[in-house]
Amino acid sequence: MVRYELMGVVNVTPDSFSDGGAFSDAAAAVAHARRLVSEGAGIVDVGGESTRPGADPVPVAEELERVLPVVEGVAALGLGARISIDTMKRPVAEAAVDAGAGYVNDVTAFRHDPDLAGLVADRGLDCCLMHMLGEPRTMQRDPRYDDVVSDVKAFLEERLAFAVAAGVAEERVHLDPGIGFGKNLAHNLELLRRLDEIVAIGRPVVVGTSRKSFLGKITGREAGERVPGTVATCVMALERGARVFRVHDVAPVADGLAVAAATLAGGWPETTIPTPTRTRTTT
Ligand code: HH2
Questions:
Q1: Residues with catalytic annotation?
Q2: Phi, psi dihedrals of residue 85, rounded to the nearest 5°
Q3: Of the candidates 245, 254, 186, 253, which has an alpha carbon nearest to the alpha carbon of residue 226?
Q4: pLDDT band, residue 267 (cuts 50/70/90)
Q5: 29-to-18, 36, 71, 74, 81 alpha-carbon distances in Å
Q6: pTM value > 0.90
Q7: What is the pLDDT of residues 98-148, one digit of tens each?
Q8: Ligand 1 pocket, 63 CB below 6 A?
Q9: Is the CB of residue 49 below 6 angstroms from any atom belonging to ligand 1?
Q10: Residue closest by Cα to atom 3 of ligand 1
């Protein structure tokens, strides 16, 4: 059976593109994390700075104020899920790790704060290095590539080499093509269609398509109504080799991936289907 993991999104921000303000109270965010884990998330990704197109940077002190109570609260629950800190800043990551996070999700792949690589190395953390063209404020202004998949692949290989040179163990690194980060609709679809080329780098690939605007461009749906589109992209990405799925809606994606994984495996152990009908027909 294909092994994969769901990373549930816990945004503690007033301005995230799809759930901004919904969990800006720490208690609500912790309760949300508990729910995502109960639905199947093996990682909860806590973020205090929106990276939506046009977003302004958040000062360290403010980001810390947002994320720390949530990381502490989730760690105190002992849910058995790993806690990821979605940040590009070493001081934020360091405080979150002290509070219980074990995974650093950096959408700048250690470019914003190269010292973050040292923290990941010294503390033996897992990390996700993501591709982004430009920076959130400007990244959606006419992004261009020679060949989007080759360009993203070369970038991720270079960032992996940087992390390893900084002392990060290669087996701790996940790579992410950065769906929606400096990409137009055609770029996003081509990355998903040719995801196997990114997988070929040899590290587990993370995909974050959840509720993103390219789904709205195809379906005409608002952010909260893009769950079916999200499930479709996750299933296709699984088939092409992705292994971590960063999503807001864990339950429906977990179902979609379970069915896809069983299909890819060529079956599902029948003993796990406890239906009375089946019991009667076998006796
Ligand atoms: N997407 C977002 C944020 N962090 N991290 C990774 N590794 N991959 C992604 O695709 C990714 C990410 C954007 O989504 P969201 O957190 O919902 O929105 P916002 O940045 O507005 O808070």
A1: 212, 246
A2: -110, 120
A3: 253
A4: low
A5: 15, 10, 10, 9, 15
A6: yes
A7: 999 999 999 999 999 999 999 999 999 999 999 999 888 888 888 999 999
A8: no
A9: no
A10: 51
